[in-house]
Hints:
- With about 425 residues, the chain is mainly beta.
- It folds into two domains: about 1-65, no CATH class; about 75-425, 6 Propeller (Neuraminidase), CATH 2.120.10.30.
- Helices cover about 5% and strands about 40% of the residues.
- The chain has helices spanning about 55-65, 150-155, and strands at about 1-5, 10, 30, 35, 45-50, 75-80, 85-95, 95-100, 105-110, 115-120, 125, 140-145, 155-165, 170-180, 185-195, 210, 220, 240-245, 265-270, 275-280, 285-290, 295-300, 340, 345-350, 365-370, 375, 390, 400-405, 410-415, 420-425.
- Strands 2-1-5-4-3 form a five-stranded antiparallel beta sheet, with no helix packed on it.
- The radius of gyration is 23 Å and the shape is globular.
- The two termini are about 35 Å apart.
- Residues about 1-55 and about 60-70 have low confidence and may be disordered.
- InterPro entries: 6-blade_b-propeller_TolB-like, Glc/Sorbosone_DH, Quinoprot_gluc/sorb_DH_b-prop.
- It holds the Pfam family GSDH.
- This is Glucose/arabinose dehydrogenase.
Amino acid sequence: MQIFRGGRLEGVMPHLRSRHNFRLPERILARTGRSAACPSTGATYFVLMRIMKPFAAFAILSLLCLMGPAQAASKTFDTDKVRVEATVIASGLDHPWALAFLPDGDVLVTERSGRMRILSHGKLSAPIAGVPEVAAYGQGGLMDVAISPHYATDQLIFFTFSRPGKGGSGTAAARAKLVRDGGKARLEEVRVIYSMKEKTASPLQFGSRLVFAPDGTLFITTGDRGDAERAQDMQDSAGAILRVEPDGSVPPDNPYAKGGKALPIIWSKGHRNIQGAAYDPLTRGLIVTEHGARGGDEVNRPQAGKNYGWPVISYGRNYSGTRIGIGTAAPGYEQPLYYWDPSIAPSGLAIYEGDMFPEWKNDLLVGALKYRLVARLPRDARGRITGEERLFAGAFGRIRDVRVAPDGSIWLLTDEDDGEIVRLSRAR
């Protein structure tokens, strides 16, 4: 018999063998997805049993419930400037995509399969009711989540998802009121505030990050959906950064607010697939990270009405090895602040403004799917990137999201079948 807790092997009892699967009665364990939870302690287990006598396993799992959850495992890592302690505080998530901190200290977490859950006091809730249908295939599904700047009074949350429709799916953004009633939560008054008009069957490149600016407007990133030319079509919202009011209306100071040659919601174009975005207090603007093809991942500071080149210029190459576009630079197209070749597959971006790691003040923290690491990009007083330090390579999994908590700790999400939430704190 093998016993897993929170996706981690707790013990092996090889003398208990049989071809029979064992399922505990509901009064001891309540099934939750692929794991089982003890109702008295909240400890979660995934149990694989081959036993001769079912009552033996029954007794063992009953004992585990009585013992309660073990302390979360932690590791320490030495970096250039500080020693970091990493603690897995939750696991068993199905390809988690984003997290957001609620004012009461709880955490919203999205799973690409279409579930949204709340982490409260180290325990994951049941899925929140009322999430709209998502097209959960390929890179699509339920993606980013953000809290209204006025959450204390409006209880609104915002989220992105691949919205199904005629022809396939496309990136969409919605808002809803989060209602919490005892131990249950649901979404009410769900309203789609943006939906990509042209839907395709492509499983690729949805973008989907959300960032609120200090003026209350909302940035939404989109990918080119696997069709590079869409990123240069000014009448198409794919391959772009969009800027809207919280109700989905167009801010009057958008660069194309009057329409004409471009969609009014467009802020910038020429982006392949932005999966990292954050507002930067240092430069008072948006910072994004975006996927290249074979190389050419970029950090950009998108400006109103500017074009960032994809697929006309790129520092990467096609997966076939051929050149992309006309080269790495051309008039009318902006250059990146920084780029990677080979690619690291950047997803998730935080700008460190907390107190726990003062050594990293104003640094960019970029999650990487490909090398399973966090890239720390230090900057000077003008916001220019001055180097790169690669942290935690291979220690956790594919890093999908990076966020800074109110206490200054750094939280990571791993995009895996058994996805984890990892908290980084200063080691003692």
